[in-house]
Amino acid sequence: MFKRDHMRICTVPQMFNETVVRYGERRCQWFKTGPTETSSLTYDEVGRIVKDLTGGLLSLGMAKQDRAAIMSYNCPEWLWADMSILCAGAVTVTIYPSLSANEMKYIINNSDAKFFYVRDEEGLDKVLSCIDEMPTLEKVIVFDNNCPLPDDSRFININALKELGRRYLHQNQYAYEKAWHNIEVWDLATIIYTSGTTGNPKGAMHTHQTFMSACQADNNNFANAGYMIDEQDVNLSFLPLSHSYERQCGQMISLNAGCTIAYAEKPQTVVADFQTFRPTWFCSVPRIFERIYMAIRDAASGTPEGKAAFEKALDIGLRVVDTRADEHGFVDMGFDVDMTAGLSEELLAEYKWADEAIFSKVRQILGGNFRVSFSASAGLPADLCKVFMAMGIRICEGYGLTETMNAVNFNDLRAVLPGSIGPTLYLSEERLAEDGELLVRGETVFMGYFKDPEATAEAFTEDGFFKTGDIAVLEANNYYRIIDRKKSIMVLDTGKNVPRAKVENKFSTARYIEQICVVGDDAKFVTAVVVPKYEYLIQVLASEGITFDNEKIVFVGEGVERVCVSVGEDFTNHPEVRKLIDEDIANANQELEGVEQIKKYHISKRRFLETLDEVTPTLKNKYRIIIKNFQEEIAALYKE
């Protein structure tokens, strides 16, 4: 099963250019051009575009190890920009498009970026608002060729850059080849700024070596579990490429294997995009898996009969998972496994009904070609993992950080332990500090923080182990389980420690709660700020003749992206709403120790929003910001 050419250590440009030759006529990128129309580009076509863009950058004076930034949502041009920067020997700096102008300016100035790719007029306006405060910036390249540019020589669209490149390469034969052949694996490849909750973000520096070592470690894990990503696969890309997770685990693994990268319109359209692109695999985060589960459950529960059938089938599936688990809880989800092996005749008959009547239809929601998905960025709750297992949907959880170029731990698909991050991947070594903090050293760990030797020194132990900031415990078979971020564990005024993640993860399959932030530091008991599933509750209660003030209900977006972001007090104060939220709270509390249980909660009139810096681009709560923004409501919970 091993494909050795997928596991080589080389520079990213060498990998990319060899892939273009090997898979030239095969589809590389697949994307929507209209509501129902799609288009695609082959590896040959993408290789030609990247070569022209690289030539354009070289013609503008880009030199080896110059920094060039990208600020855009996922799209085919993101890959072109990234590969053109790297093939020129320069360093890619990633910027989330959701960041403010001030945050963008800080990263551009801190990295000394000379070139800047942006997607459209929105990104261009952000740049224009502070262009004179970014003195190192020499050229801004806009992906949208129809976007009007200012009368300023610093601005150019991507087609014009390609044309510059074609002319330059005609006049300077082999300039492209010389540029990418002049790169060594130890050269800096990217600076990825962490989305820190306090202070300015820090730029984690990664080399071509750490990029490709991460790909090698992932592929080694796949092969040992009996499968590999190859040219037949389709990867659906929807997590932000500005983050190391989607960029390395999604984009780089795909390029290395010659498979198709399909681009979702947005994370909010993922379920619809499954039907358009019918992917075989994708990378995701727990919040997206929760949304996928909710979409599956709602689709199957359209009628009382359908709801009853889905719940019955899920109960059967979970019993099958428990039956198949060994004494430590490990479950074989390998592609060659027979899910029905070893079941009693009665449970076998029940499962065959559940799979035919419910689960087979559920799997069609993922497009029909789905093989496996990967979860990272935050802990995948064990209950949610088991739910997908019950339906025959494979999720393999891993663990890593920006500083480790993603996974340093990975579950083996043939031995998945729900709630764990798996064993240490080869190329890495790990140990636990005295306080339980997970420490890691190895081939994928970053060089340090850009221009920040103090933070770099603080990040490592004396013998070179990176301090992850996560508290972990060692389980059976050398699998690790993350308890929580070291700084996220709440300490009550009694001195009791309560892991915030443990409490919040109990709501991953909640029926009525969309988001939750638990509170308890220096307090007598645990409380929470709760964001209900507004649309669902409005629909459920409307069927019972209960309505709310429509003028206070605010939706944003259109079509499948339409989401309710705020409601009025008549909604949050309604006894039926509180009754349903009480159900979810009570169900979670049953699985928590007394000191961990939520004693009181506030129902929020609005969602936690990325625009208010309350969630990260990968949908994790920034609890410090949320607690600050809801400090009056939280204080009231402790006064009552």
What can you tell me about this protein's structure?
38% of the residues lie in helices and 21% in strands. It is α/β, with parallel strands linked by helices. The strands form six sheets. Strands 2-1-11-10-12-13-14-15 form an eight-stranded mixed beta sheet, sandwiched between helices. The chain has an eight-stranded mixed beta sheet with strand order 7-6-5-3-4-8-9-18, with helices on both faces. A four-stranded antiparallel beta sheet has the order 16-17-19-20. The relative contact order is 0.08.
Helix amount: 25-40%
Radius of gyration over C-alpha positions, nearest whole angstrom: 25 Å
The secondary structure category is alpha/beta
Q: Helix segment count?
A: 21
Proportion of strand residues: 15-25%
Mean pLDDT: 93
Strand order of the largest sheet: 2-1-11-10-12-13-14-15
What separation lies between the terminal Cα atoms? 62 Å
Number-wise, the strands total 27
Shape summary: globular
Please give the largest β-sheet. Answer: 8 strands, mixed
What low-confidence regions span 5 or more consecutive residues with pLDDT below 50?
Answer: none
